[in-house]
Amino acid sequence: MLRALTLLLCLYSSQALTATIALVDSYHESYQWSASYRQGIDSVLGVKHSLSIFELDTKRTPKHDHAAIAAATIDAITQLNPDLVILADDNAVSLLAAEIMELSYPLIVMGLNANPRKYHLNDYDDVGALLERPIFRRSIMMASELLNLTQPQRFMMLFDNSATSRIALTELSADLSPITLSNIRIDFVATNDYKQWQNHIKTSQQNGFSAVFVGLYHTLSNDGTHVPSSDAAAWADTNSPTPIFGFWDFAVTDNIALGGFVLDGYLHGVQAAKMALSRLNNGVKQRTFINDRQGSYYFNSSKLKHWKISLPETVKQQTRWTSP
Q1: Which H or E element spans position 186?
Q2: Is 258 helix (H, G, I), strand (E, B) or coil?
Q3: Angle between helices 66-80 and 90-102 (to 10 degrees)
Q4: pTM score, two decimals?
Q5: How far is Cα 62 from Cα 60, in angstroms, rounded to an integer?
Q6: Tens digits of per-residue pLDDT, 129-177?
Q7: How many Cβ atoms are within 10 Å of 178's Cβ, its own excluded?
Q8: Cα–Cα distance between 38 and 31 in angstroms, integer?
């Protein structure tokens, strides 16, 4: 079970190492969000600092194992005795933040969907928190404009039923009841059942939806067996009768979504690393909370062609493209 805890120690010998940093990833390197933000962090911190990465792998390991994995991670961090700790995403924060604060390490939190008060981060005098805030409204309005539909529209927001999904969705609907933005009705679905997830996509058109927004799809299971996100993405790409948009860049990279105005994992990592660098350089305790809403246009050209969707020239000029 503890093999799910992976320590990757990256040493850069070309320049003097000035600080030791522990990065705790809630997930694992093959998860696209993790891979993207790690690249962002490495681009800022990797040249001059020693970065140790601990993977909790909470999307694939049973929940009853998480406490033991967290305890082993704390032991490893105390042995490392880093100059600063970065906790990435809600699960790492919920499992480790209290002990990291008790040990008085300078702390950077990133990818946090929940209110920082939930974990008493506001009571700690040496924390910088980069809050992950998907750009729901702007993404939805942009999709409406691209589809160019004159009649009232109906969109589905389809997420897995993970804690992260539930926290993120409460920004729009606390109880997941439908809402209306402009002339667009938004229905919410949160499920970890893969067959139900598939059925919602497969019947989306006949149920009156103009588009599906896929959020997180990483805790789906089929009769108790975890479904790899790549398998879910491949199925949706082949079987969806309606266009699929995304809120995070990984949905486009995974080839499940045609695109959107998305949160960029790489840029999120860069911003978190700059917060860490500031703390290391000035040596002064801080308490900083920042919302990350710096989205970017990210599209798949072949999917746009398939759905006969054309981007306005102003959007096209700002778009990052993924390979078909």
Answers
A1: strand 184-190
A2: coil
A3: 50
A4: 0.84
A5: 7
A6: 999 888 899 999 999 999 987 778 999 999 999 988 998 998 899 899 9
A7: 11
A8: 11
